[in-house]
From TrEMBL:
Domain Amidase: 25-449
GO molecular function, one term: catalytic activity
Protein name in the entry: Amidase
Similarity annotation: Belongs to the amidase family.
Amino acid sequence: MAEPHDLDALGQAAAVARGELSSVELVAHHLARVDALGDTVGAFVTVTPEQARRAARAADAVPAAERGPLHGVPTAVKDLTLTAGVRTTFGSAAFADHVPTVDADVVRHLRDAGLVSLGKTTTSELGCSLYSEGLVAPPARNPWDLAYTAGGSSGGAAAAVAAGLVPVAQGSDGGGSVRIPAALCGLVGLKPSRGLVSGGPLGSGAFGLPTNGPIGRTVADVAALLDVLAVPVPGEPYLPPPPPPGGHLAAARRATPGRLRVGRFTRPMLVDEPIHPDCVAAVDRAAALLAGAGHEVVEVEPPLGPESWPLFETVWYVLALAPVPPERESDLLPLTRFLRERGVRVSAAALTGTLAELQALVRLGARRTAGVDLLLCPTLAAPQAPVGWFHSGVDPAEDFDRQRRFSPFCAVFNLTGQPSVSLPVGRTAGGLPVGVLLTGRYGDDARLLATAAEVEQADGGWDHRHPAIWRAVGSANVNSNGVGGATP
């Protein structure tokens, strides 16, 4: 028998609109799942049940004519994102008791659209790593197999969606932090075009690399959440691209992008070494689906190469220099301290020169790929990584280098500002998800989502694919190895 969490986000909202479920009932159902499975998959740092119940009652009281497509649906907010009155630790013991007094713009947009946050999802410390294993919460684990990481820095958000604790979640992506967890957990994760979603009030000082973005089980759910997040805010430093007719959800539902020329490549951009065969196979499958839908798929050179890594590395060191009270520096993790120690050595002149060189490379890359409408490549260089693999038994420099070798594709599109989405097209022999990256032209998020929806349809749909933990009442239903497996 179907349960409320079996419905996708749009399905849950439709059930509320028809009077079959109330937001109060949806929130109660998902809070029970959070209570049973939240720590098992390491999804949440802070759960806010009372605030969620109040918000659900308020959502149920809104007249039907004033409700949007996701009204009344449970969601969650990443622990890097300011939330007034709710503990927000930025994934760090240095901020273990921090309670903001203001909301990030995206938090306000979620509330205005009638979504109900259940709490704050696990993230990496200060967003500095692609795994979410800190000191303020259990590590974010992949619900498909608990021995593996859910990724980062939006690892808790992906774990929550993949385990059916919420149907959609807000994340943020400064170097792959939405797309990496989505790929690992078998989800759709979108990094929108630069400027489309507000980073305010404090998220605009990172050279345009990070942006908020949605994580969900279907392209339509992700498009619907993007419409919620992409509300223009005065004073933003980047001019948002014009909205598509009818919104991004309408584009995803139409799934008619027109015949496109898709540039395929599998050579990594930030390292010079081969990638896992499963990741190549996933790209091959996506290319076949795109070709079957009538698109022309051609081989292209990657827009950037390994020569860009030292420049990006320098920027990442500087990005780690978020303000931390001096007396709490010792509470930071070794990797964070390593990055910050190097960041303080970068002079203003060196940083300015690095940014100029990166922009020159971005321009060259844009010219190199100007003849295609979309780019197709792997999301990651390997399908999965065990919990602890990046940092256990190695020094921070090796930890950081392992991350570079694991994710040599995503960060380039933070540099270019292009919209980029990870799609769960592939599978390993053991049934674990493998993602592919589809990237569009700047400002063309609607066509990217329409193409992603076309791929989803050609692949038989993704909403019915769940790990075994999906049906578990609690952690006792997970086998002794912590392996979830796949449901039929």
